[in-house]
Give the backbone structure.
Amino acid sequence: MRGLFHKVPLYWGLAILLFMMLFPFVNDSRSMLILLTQIFIFAIFAMSFDILLGYTGIVSFGHCMFFGIGAYSTAIIFNHLEATLFNFIIGLVIGIILSALVSYIIGLLSLRLKSHFYAMLTLAVSQLFLVLAEKWRGLTHGGDGFTFSVPDVFKDRTSFYYITLLSVAVVFLLLKLFTESSTGKVLKAISQNEYRAEALGYKSLHYKLIASVTAGVAASFSGALYAVSLRFINTNVFSIEVTLDALLMTMIGGIGTLAGAIAGAGIIEFLRHYLSELAMTYPIFERWTIILGFLYIVVLLGFPSGLAGFIKRITLNNKMKAKKKGELERTTA
Amino acid sequence: MEVFINLLVNGVSTGLLIFLLAAGLTLIFGLMSVLNFAHGGLFVWGAFSGAWIFKETNSFLLAIVGAVGIGMALGWVLERFLIRPVYGNHVRQLLITLGGMLVLSESIKIFWGPNPIRVNLPGWLEGSYQFDGIIIIKYRVFVIVVGLLLYMALWLLLSRTQIGLMIRAGVMDKEMVQALGINVKGLFTFVFLLGAALAALGGALLAPYSGVVFAEMGMQYAILAFIVVIIGGMGSLQGSALASLIVGVAGAFMAYYIPDLSLALNMLLLAIVLLVKPTGLMGEKGSAV
């Protein structure tokens, strides 16, 4: 089932992009820019997760590891080398290569088995990375983390805003092309009925590996941007909460739609921002993670296709009603 | 020699604690192919409620009974409201049990605060035994005894009773059992509650063992239990018992000699099993593919 956002024509996307590009001229409050930058970064992350969950139908519970690999690669490079754009590219490439390797190996080990194995193995390996980051103090400074300096163009909030916005647009287009390609079509087929796809002659392991590596690479990119946005890194990037963020964003936005993932990232980050503000007056909101957890369960049980599916259902219903009304008028007339 | 025996006792007792967690997981999976990611949440609830009741009442027995009761109550809620609605859909089951895990471990922080809590040993289990200079901590022996007794009880339940027969038959061929007129859903609820009770008991026993409890440990031990379930073979109780001992003992020795690699060792074991025999050591039915 395809969500509404799939059918949103290109000019809608362009209009949103244009609005976002003009936004800093309308409202240049610093905290708003930071929040939006954060949303863009997590939108890339959520889209990468959706390639797995929504488009291929495989569940990963360790997606944070690619985010963390990307973040640490960039951070460690900046910690040891000068803060130049060229070094950023180096860190990015290292992170991407590492992520691709790790996702390939995990996929090779578990993707030929039932979906449970991939979920468990990714969870276990991501925890292994968390321990590694805590133990390898010489490189990562353990749980305390470290700060580092970044190129000037990243330091300026407005220019970084545009960089992340551009990144979201480019990643969205690339992933869109990927999902619309023949490979993407096979992935969709696998998510609907793996045996049938196999029977048609598609080696599902091969295609699932492609999806796994693509998702890992995209997540690594978002991690690198995240590290740069904070100019600080610690082992939190490997925590299970990061994976849960991706899960929540894709679930709430609507799985199987890239635009849904972006919307989900926006909703979750806004919610988190305002809930943590509320927490200053009402201490109960300090534990907002549990609110997100309940929200997640409610969405899973009540709206399995997320916001995108919900909107689609409403518009479909309206269309049906209009159609029925038309028919009724015709018959009575 | 002393070190060897101590490590062995450590490893076996940790292994048996992991087994309590893994037994529920593997039975639940075997019967309904539900992989319960919230199992670690029940474990950590067992640990916290056990520690809390022990602190309030000073009775270790009461603490264990209370923890098991709370674990079963939570397990019932979990089964009734989260797992039943998505019955038969693997992807949504995986997703929703993770949500359950999140809520369970976060609610721990609401009840007991975000900081780790210290737990004392009950008086009659403090201290240690001494044989020829080899010192063995009493509580570890206690855990081993309880773990072995529970394993025996589970084995008897599965092999000697009517309901055990139904469970084993259900693990083998669920549709057939259903066709014979046995209420598989009711059976599943029973197994789920049993698993929840074992997980909570494992948590309650672990709390004084490690001396400190924290909300994140549910996830840590759940991961160990998953590794054990895969190595042992999903759905196989004996496999889980064997794999628990392997993981526990290997972990104890690695933690002593090469501490940094102890988690990596489990991953290595897991990778080998997945490559060579994805059904696990004792998984009979081809449940892996």
Q: What stands out?
A: Chain A touches chain B through 37 residues (CB under 8 Å). The first helix of chain A runs from residue 10 to 26. Chain A has one domain: 4-332.
